[in-house]
What does this fold into?
Amino acid sequence: MIKPTKHQEIWERKEDDSLVLVLPKIINSDIGFQLMFGFRESQRDYKDKQTINNNNYKPKTYIDVKHYKKHI
It folds into this structure.
């Protein structure tokens, strides 16, 4: 995920974690994605969510079919 530059961001986060839409007078970049889908997640938040999700699922491994049938 690419970190957007400051002039591309139109959503401003306040100290109380609320988001405010700040549109520039002259739009000189492609902000259509942000207008359609809202703010972009930060890279840190995305990685934290991904790590939590990965920790919720532990894959099971079986030796063979008999072992699999035994543990169903």
Remarks:
- The chain has one domain: 6-70.
